[in-house]
Specification:
Largest sheet: 6 strands, parallel
CATH topology of the largest domain: Rossmann fold
Number of domains: 3
CATH architecture of the largest domain: 3-Layer(aba) Sandwich
Distance between the termini: 113 Å
Strand content: 5-15%
Structural class: alpha/beta
Strand order of the largest sheet: 1-4-3-2-5-6
Number of helices: 10
Order of helices and strands: HHHHEHEHEHEHHEHE
Number of strands: 6
Helix content: 55-70%
């Protein structure tokens, strides 16, 4: 073999090695993408599935129960279990709200792109990509809402109480929440904006009042069962306090009854806050008031309701 032939063969061998390496690298990338999903670039559509609902909800429930086991009965950590589990649900709620805001921020840009459409392929693709991102963010938001509501139901089962955020309402746009807990201010704002149906439950509003003096849970639940038998679409309105109102909130959660909660605004009204709260509650014009034993604040609500012509049922 001549030197020229040897040299040519050496070059061909190196080319074969390079091609083999490239093919190996490409195969590896394709394999990793198939196994773990390829993340699309900023100028590409995201064709990945949003989530696997069964797997994700099962994982959330498993994590929830593992957290509960971290604070077992008989230990001091058990006193912190409720707060620990509340924080877990709140984390999912915070993620839901974050994605909701992110999707909302894209809306002005989409409207601007719609106005700027000139028939060009570039403008059309920009609009399609922006719309795809907004739809994906909304789908992710809905997924996290389902996970939040799943964890919230586990919280109710574990603690016996409905999960509520520190501020604002607990509503579900995906329809997975059997009993919404809505702040009165959100409800009043929603009445002015009929498009915001998540904050505007349809039904017969009935107010429940009473304080920590009302300790007969069985009697309270019995009255509420009678109420629901009479008004199948009942929506409870209450102040979110202890005693009778806490029992009523738990009953509503278990029975899929929506709630509107009027909490006193102590920062704005000081010691007058409970009485101002009574005015706010009655401004919703409930069909009636069921009053269980309570303090002078409950009596004030009863007197104001009667002066407005709202029927009051006092339960001893």
């Amino acid at each position: 073999m001549t030197a020229t032939a040897t040299h040519k063969e050496s070059i061909m061998h190196e080319v074969d090695n390079i091609e083999a390496q490239n093919e190996s690298f490409t195969a590896m990338v394709c394999e990793q993408a198939a196994l773990f999903g390829a993340t699309p670039g900023p100028d590409e559509f995201d064709n990945r599935p949003v989530w696997g609902e069964a797997e994700s909800t099962a994982a959330v429930l498993k994590a929830f129960h593992l957290l509960a086991e971290a604070a077992p009965d008989g230990t001091q950590l058990a006193d912190e279990r409720r707060n620990l589990l509340w924080g877990f649900v709140n984390t999912l709620d915070a993620q839901t709200q974050r994605l909701d805001r992110a999707a909302d921020k894209l809306i002005p840009g989409i409207r601007e792109l719609q106005r700027e459409q000139d028939g060009s392929e570039i403008r059309s693709r920009e609009l399609e990509l922006a719309t795809d991102r907004a739809e994906n963010l909304t789908a992710r938001r809905d997924a996290f809402e389902v996970l939040r509501d799943t964890a919230a139901e586990a919280y109710r089962s574990e603690t016996g109480e409905a999960w509520r955020p520190r501020r604002g309402s607990h509503v579900s746009q995906t329809g997975k929440l059997t009993s919404a807990v809505i702040e009165a201010r959100d409800f009043q704002r929603a009445k002015k904006d009929r498009e915001n149906t998540a904050h505007l439950p349809q039904g017969t509003l009935v107010a429940v009042a009473g304080g920590k003096e009302a300790t007969d849970a069985g009697k309270i639940i019995g009255q509420l069962d009678k109420l629901k038998a009479k008004y199948a679409d009942v929506v409870l309105v209450h102040g979110g306090g202890p005693g009778a109102e806490k029992v009523a909130a738990g009953w509503a959660e278990r029975n899929g009854v929506h709630q509107i909660v009027c909490k006193p605004d102590w920062d704005a009204h000081g010691r007058a806050a409970p009485f101002r709260r009574n005015d706010e509650l009655l401004s919703l014009l409930p069909k009636g008031v069921i009053a269980f034993p309570g303090s002078g604040i409950t009596d004030n609500l009863v007197d104001k309701a009667r002066s407005l012509g709202i029927p009051v049922q006092k339960v001893a």
